[in-house]
Design goal:
The chain has 1491 residues and is an alpha/beta fold. Helix content is 43%, strand content 11%.
């Protein structure tokens, strides 16, 4: 198998290179934002830049990147665009900038929205240019740029400005381009269309000639484009050299066609045009398909286009077609061909009289139609309206090959999409794993197109939705599998032995050589299938490894996935492996096949089952595993062996590889998606269109739902009547009781129910007429019935004073429909979620709610808050493996709940025993739940009814208050409650107490009745299933668990009515969708009533490791984000209580009206200044240290030594002032820097009791969802902005701090970035050198913003800060009583022995300025760290699985013992400065960004 060439990484230019560029000089003169006096607009500048910088460099990404980054589009091109100055260079420059923005994944249309006037003219020019002749004004490369721009337009239909222009190209008038006979046929199929067509013709006739010409030009744009492309594809030779410009144009053109076919609004009329042009037939017969290297990607794209042109959907209605309907369409086509053959072509009588199944294969169609002449074939096609009628006595101009292919491809039987999917192997093979067009490397630049599906705004059908997600999820998993295979197999060092066999020179923790492999079972196929039902094999390996690794192999569980690999190395023993060269040819990898573990075999050859019993101890080191092979793959391989004489793959395997369990659940998720596609996928009607991206996006909002609920009990949501009134601004609140003393919570509120249908809407917001009635709320205070006399009977209450937007979110969540809550940082998303859950639980006790989150941590936070509310813990259940992290003694897992039920049953039966004794009833009523039930019915109820008859109202007179207590039958039982039980003040009060006591007793027996099942079900598994299906009312799990366990849950008959999703913007699209379908439909309908999604699409999206899937396929887009883009109404929480108002300003520009809660201004911690620091936030400029800025020891493993040392120095300074170390967290944007900072902390202060360690040192991505008082942030990069250009990452970085944020960065780089301007303009408004107040103690009484009474010192650079901290530390040590004791813990001295100690900071600063290098760096001493400690440190840090695609972490198998990378440390007091970052050679970081 040919190894693909390694793609090059695009190297971003450095700041110095940027400044030296001609473009930068022009920018500084004409459009740079920081330049005050700019030169006037000059069109020649645009012409020069286009010709000299863009065209001359052949559209080099580096040049375009520079231009786009300099804000060329925003501040010069579009700002000055008008029809008068429009030119080719102008158009092309704008297109290049927009395309670059899409490549960088930054918002592209904002500039056009601000100044939309000239966009229609600009778009018209683009359309004209796209159809221009290539030998004329526009080259083919330029037209490829235009095609890409148009593709971006078609994929941005949510932007009103773009949609208004694009709609004119994709509406019904485009059918003017159909041949007349085909047009007539299509109009006849759908009579309604004829009416519209006649209307179009009438309007057409009324137009003036110029307007009509423009109208027709737009309508026929696609027809013209298709004709142009077909002529181009025929010009490509089969064996002569072809310019890559032509190939790239063809690829981009097919990509555009796929995108038009994959969206219903663009596909509706275009699919017929595409079919009428016979593009697919022309392309499949073209020479490009047969050119092996140049045409490989083109062929793959063509297959995708073929799939979408024949997609199972009705183009006009948008309804999915069933298999029966598709079969009917196929039969209609064949029979119409047979009728035409019978009527007009005697030579086709045999064909016309055959049954359909006999003639609808490719072979039989070629047999019947192959002998016919070209003219006859043309006539057959024209009878079917596929080609224009052939004039008499004229020969056809079409090739016979084309005519035959046209008829055959149109009428051959197609395998259904679901059949194709079911026959697809789930495990990737070597053909897919190393195909760069399908699974690109981490070096994907974004330049070319790929044969990948895209996740955009809309999908054709649910099948299409699931299929795209299925393919992308499979390929993303394949990318990770490739990394694991390359890592493990290269560690094993397979070499060719002297005798031609394989010898392994190394070893790997995750892979072992196979000793023996045997297929032991191939089961018969099911009826109607041609693949075996199962294939099992035995794999024997020799575990001559360390005990803990042996345990890992023996611990492989059922359903764990492994990979069987065949290598045939060609390199002799001892050849070094080079990671930069293609993997396959070095290793000699031939085959990869997946398998699933069934179990390990014991001495007798039986599978050892998983269970509570201890596993048998096996002798020796040889172990055999029974594995399931993929039946589909096995069938394909065997067919290939038998039919083509290929070798038997299953006799060649020599390596088995396992993977980490957390990363190895892809097969279960893929099976879940495939099962969904095979079942009748029932989504609630009110959600169906929204999920596909069509219809009214607000149709599922509660205000438009037909089953809106008028009266809701808000339970403990409101703290007082005043709180309630402020929560509904603009509403009249009518309380049903006038006495203020009775106007206390809880409240029931009756809302005016407005129907969403049938009324005229008054304004664009969809508000009905503002009548007084529509704004009136009826509030009814009610008293919660007494629950019993014990203190624990009192309900737990909410203590949070929710804001009016939070109340709106809670109200929406309680109503049926889709509720989307956007929760900016610190706005109480979790509190809102918990209150919604609590209110649903109390309002609808019979309903069950499913909670889904992205992470176990979020689920645990949610659960801990739920437990603090008035929810009975027997109704809570937590599924998955995260429950052990709950900070509570209670176990909410399935078995934990079973144990709780059993223990609670015993407690309650003891209570029954006590009650029985107090009533003096003989027998053993507390033996079982059943006997307790009879006891309640015959003994307790009878006494209660007798009591009620004695004390109830008799006539008009109230009974004596003493009677309530006198006749009460349960005095003895309640003797252990606080006495006296009855107050004797009033009859009503005492009667309520008596009823409360009875409720307490009744609840005991109600619970016991619920627990009866645990007596009947004997096994823990059965009991846990019963709890899940019947008992639990609030069930929580992660989205991954839902995807893995869907099959089991559906099989159990799991049911739920409501779903609440936290962190919804961080969950993959498909993992958000699967939880909607964890239950079987009832009578063909979903019982789902509410779907509440809470998230923040302005923070980081789901983690996708492969850049191509993340950017090209848009796989990082969550369903939450897509709904926001589509226009689904959201409730935006608008008051934060986490951070100081000044810190909030750094990110609140990204949100709608985000303000602060009152306590942010009032509480002392927010109003007090940060001790020892002049500012509460500051951007500190860090220049190169020892001539080095950022370094990249491994791909994307970015480090910046100067920033790392500076950050640690500030941390130590703060700790020496008295800041608690656990209140400070250090964040960075790259994993490489994280490891470097941790290393420096370990060397400087980690074990020093005066300083300690920060709360966390991690990446911004990892810290999402967490917070701390003080954040020190290192931005690392000095060459290019990198992935911080994603504003979502900036928002996360800026919003983690509560009281202080200190950012270390190269200011000259970041201040010019357009996307970061709102934050960096505030940061750069303050001094860029660190301002400290060393004599101010912590905590300080100084108010934030006040001028300090102590002296302020300015720190100019990192070495100065390092020296200052050392001197401060020494001074602190000298002034303590324990100086001699602590002397032993002194860190290495900053200054050499005998050098004078400088106590005056001002003196220090003066000398610094005079000669900074001599002050600090002359005294640096070298100390080489031992290889052993370095190796162990690298091993521990690099094995942390903290890498995300953007964090760029290092992940490696921990069996490696990497050589220490000559880590040299130059010791500078407490802040020793590492001269070179230590990054091990065998680290394989995940990619960051393609710069």
């Amino acid at each position: 198998m040919a190894a693909p060439a390694q793609p090059k990484k695009i190297v971003a230019p450095t700041v110095s290179q940027i400044n030296a560029e001609f473009v930068t000089q022009l920018a500084c003169k004409y459009w740079a934002p920081h330049i005050k006096k700019k030169s006037p607009f000059d069109i020649k500048v645009i012409e020069d830049i286009y010709e000299k910088e863009i065209v001359k460099s052949r559209f080099a990404i580096r040049k375009i990147m520079l231009l786009e980054f300099s804000q060329y589009l925003e501040n010069y091109l579009w700002m000055n665009y008008s029809p008068e100055v429009s030119s080719k260079a102008y158009l092309m420059s704008i297109c290049c900038m927009v395309n670059e923005k899409f490549r960088e994944n930054v918002p592209a249309w904002e500039t056009f929205k601000k100044k939309p006037d000239h966009f229609p003219f600009f778009f018209k020019c683009i359309l004209k240019a796209a159809l221009a002749e290539t030998d004329g004004e526009f080259s083919l490369h330029e037209q490829t740029v235009l095609l890409l721009f148009l593709d971006h337009c078609f994929n941005s239909l949510e932007v009103d400005l773009i949609r208004s222009q694009v709609q004119q190209l994709i509406s019904l008038p485009m059918w003017m381009g159909l041949q007349p006979a085909r047009l007539e046929l299509e109009l006849k199929k759908t009579p309604k269309l004829r009416k519209f067509w006649n209307l179009i013709k009438k309007n057409d006739e009324k137009m003036d000639p110029e307007a009509r010409e423009q109208y027709v030009a737009k309508a026929l744009f696609h027809v013209g484009l298709l004709c142009w492309f077909i002529s181009l594809i025929f010009s490509l030779p089969i064996d002569q050299p072809v310019t890559m410009d032509k190939v790239h144009y063809c690829e981009r053109f097919i990509e555009l066609m796929i995108d038009l076919e994959a969206l219903l609004p663009t596909r509706r009329w275009f699919n017929t045009i595409l079919d009428d042009s016979h593009l697919l037939v022309h392309c499949y017969l073209s020479n490009l398909v047969h050119r092996e290297e140049d045409g490989h990607l083109f062929s793959q794209l063509l297959d995708m286009l073929k799939f979408y042109t024949g997609f199972e959907i009705n183009d006009q209605t948008g309804n999915a077609l069933t298999e029966n309907e598709m079969t009917t369409i196929h039969y209609d086509r064949i029979t119409s061909l047979q009728r035409a053959a019978f009527a007009h072509f005697p030579e086709l009588y045999d064909f016309a009289l055959s049954n359909v199944a006999e003639v609808d294969t490719r072979e039989s169609l070629v047999k019947f139609f192959g002998p016919l002449s070209s003219n006859t074939l043309h006539q057959v096609a024209s009878y079917l309206c596929l080609l224009p009628t052939l004039p008499k006595n004229e020969d056809t101009t079409f090739d016979k090959e084309f005519l035959l292919e046209l008829l055959v491809s149109r009428h051959e039987r197609r395998i259904s999409q679901i059949q194709q999917l079911n026959q697809m192997p789930l495990y990737p093979t070597e053909k897919i794993i190393w195909d760069e067009n399908i699974v690109p490397t981490e070096y994907y630049s974004g330049e070319g197109c790929l044969a990948l599906p895209k996740l955009n705004l809309q999908f054709l059908t649910l099948h299409d939705y699931l299929l795209r997600n299925f393919n992308l999820f499979r390929l993303e998993s394949t990318y990770e599998i490739r990394q694991d295979i390359e890592d493990s197999v290269s560690r094993m060092k397979p070499w060719q032995s002297e005798y031609g066999g394989v010898v392994f020179g190394g070893w790997a923790r995750m892979a072992q050589p196979i000793v023996a492999f045997t297929v032991v079972e191939v089961a018969k196929p099911n009826i109607g299938e041609n693949w075996p039902t199962r294939v099992r094999a035995d794999v024997t390996i020799n575990l001559n490894v360390r005990d803990h690794i042996k345990d890992e192999w023996e611990g492989l569980r059922k359903h764990d996935v492994c990979f069987l690999i065949t290598v045939r190395p060609t390199k002799p023993y001892g050849t070094k492996f080079d990671r930069r060269r293609p993997f396959i040819e070095q290793i000699g990898l031939v085959y990869v096949r997946g398998c699933e573990i069934q179990g390990m075999l014991d001495d007798k050859g039986r599978v050892i089952e998983d269970g509570p019993e201890p596993r048998p101890n096996l002798r020796g080191e040889s172990r055999t595993f029974r594995v399931f092979l993929d039946p589909n793959q096995y069938q394909q391989d065997m067919t290939n062996t038998i039919q083509n004489g290929a070798e038997d793959v299953y006799e060649t395997f020599n390596i088995i590889m396992r993977r980490k369990p957390k990363e190895n659940n892809f097969k279960a998720v893929l099976e879940t998606i495939r099962n969904l596609m095979n079942t009748d996928c029932v989504v609630p009607d009110w959600l169906h269109d929204i999920i596909l991206g069509y219809g009214d996006p607000s149709s599922a909002h509660y205000s438009k739902m037909p089953n809106q609920i008028a009266t809701l009990d808000f339970n403990d949501t409101f703290l007082s009547i005043e709180h309630l009134k402020t929560s509904f601004p603009g509403h009249n609140v009518k309380v049903t009781v006038d006495d203020p003393a009775l106007q206390i919570p809880p409240f029931r509120i009756t809302f005016p129910v407005r129907s969403g249908k049938g009324k005229k809407r008054k304004d664009a917001d969809g508000e009905d007429e503002d009548t007084e009635e529509a704004k009136t709320l009826i509030v009814e205070p009610h008293v919660i019935p007494n629950r019993g006399p014990y203190p624990y009977n009192q309900p737990k209450r909410n203590t949070i004073q929710f804001t009016h937007t939070q109340i709106e979110a809670i109200r929406a969540g309680m109503q049926p429909g889709l509720t989307m809550v956007v929760g900016p940082p610190g706005t109480g998303k979790t509190d809102v979620a918990v209150q919604i859950i609590s209110n649903i639980y109390h309002n609808f006790p019979e309903q069950r709610t499913l909670i889904v989150t992205h992470s176990n941590q979020a689920l645990n936070q949610l659960f801990e808050k739920i437990m603090a509310l008035d929810i009975d813990e027997r109704h809570l259940l937590r599924l998955g493996h995260g429950e052990e992290e709950l900070e509570t003694e209670k176990d909410f897992s399935r078995y934990g709940r079973v144990n709780y039920v059993l223990a609670r049953r015993i407690e309650l039966l003891e209570e029954v025993k006590r009650l029985q004794k107090s009533l003096g009833v003989p027998g053993d009523a507390s033996y079982t739940c059943e006997t307790a039930g009879y006891f309640f019915l015959y003994q307790v109820m009878s006494r209660w009814e007798e009591y009620i008859s004695k004390v109830k109202n008799k006539g008009n007179t109230l009974p004596d208050v003493t009677e309530v207590s006198t006749f009460f039958p349960f005095h003895e039982y309640f003797a252990n409650a606080p006495q006296p039980i009855f107050k004797g003040r009033s009859y009503e009060e005492d009667m309520e107490i008596a009823e409360g006591c009875f409720r307490h007793i009744k609840k005991i027996f109600t619970q016991l009745e619920e627990f009866r099942a645990s007596e009947l079900l004997r096994s823990g598994l059965d009991r846990s299933k019963y709890l899940l299906v019947k008992e639990a009312k609030i069930i929580a799990m992660t989205c991954t668990h839902a995807a893995l366990k869907r099959h089991d849950l559906v099989k159990l008959g799991f049911k739920y009515d409501n779903i609440l999703m936290e962190e919804a913007a961080q969950i993959l699209e498909i993992e958000t969708f699967i939880p909607l379908l964890l239950q079987n439909p009832q009578d063909g309908f979903s019982r789902l009533k509410r779907w509440i999604m809470i998230g923040d699409h302005h923070q980081l999206p789901p983690v996708i490791k492969n850049m191509a899937f993340q950017k090209y396929s848009n796989m990082e887009q969550s369903l939450f984000t897509r709904f926001v883009r589509v226009g689904v109404p959201t409730v935006d929480l608008d008051a934060q209580g986490r951070a100081r108002a000044s810190l909030c300003n750094l990110y609140n520009w990204r949100y709608k009206n985000l303000g602060n809660l009152p306590h942010v201004q009032l509480l002392p911690e927010f109003s007090t200044a940060n001790a020892g620091l002049l500012y509460d936030f500051q951007l500190i400029n860090v220049e190169d240290f020892q001539g080095v800025g950022e370094s990249e020891p491994n791909p994307y493993f970015y480090q910046n030594l100067g920033e790392a040392e500076y950050v640690v120095a500030l941390f130590m300074y703060m700790c020496l002032l008295g800041y608690p170390a656990d209140k400070i967290s250090i964040l960075t944007t790259y994993n490489g820097q994280k490891h470097l900072i941790r290393d420096i902390i370990n060397r400087r202060c980690g074990s020093n009791p005066l300083i300690g360690r920060p709360n966390k040192v991690t990446t911004v991505d990892r810290f999402q969802g967490q917070q701390n008082d003080y954040i020190l942030l290192s931005l690392v990069r000095t060459r290019a902005v990198g992935h911080l250009r994603d504003v979502r990452r900036l928002v996360v970085a800026m919003s983690r701090a509560r009281l202080g944020l200190y950012i270390f960065a190269r200011v000259s780089l970041f201040q010019n970035c357009f996307e970061l301007t709102p934050a960096f303009s505030q940061l750069t408004a303050r001094p860029l050198h660190l301002h400290i107040i060393p004599t101010e103690p912590f905590p300080t009484s100084r108010k934030n913003g006040e001028r300090p009474s102590h002296e302020v010192q300015i720190i100019k650079n990192m070495p100065q800060m390092a020296n200052f901290v050392y001197n401060m530390y020494m001074h602190l040590i000298q002034t303590t009583h324990h100086y001699h004791q602590t002397l032993l813990q002194l860190p290495p001295a900053m200054v050499e022995e005998g050098e004078e100690f400088q106590s005056q900071e001002t003196e220090l600063e003066t000398e610094e300025e005079a000669n900074p290098a001599q002050t600090d760096l002359s005294s640096l001493t070298d100390a080489t760290s031992s290889q052993e400690s370095s190796a162990s440190r690298i091993e521990t840090t690099c094995n942390e699985t903290e890498s995300t695609p953007s964090e760029t972490g290092a992940s490696s198998n921990s069996e490696a013992t990497p050589a220490a990378s000559n880590t040299t440390a130059t010791v500078t007091g407490p802040v020793a400065v590492s001269a070179e970052a230590c990054a091990p050679q065998d680290v394989t970081p995940a990619p960051e960004e393609t710069k």
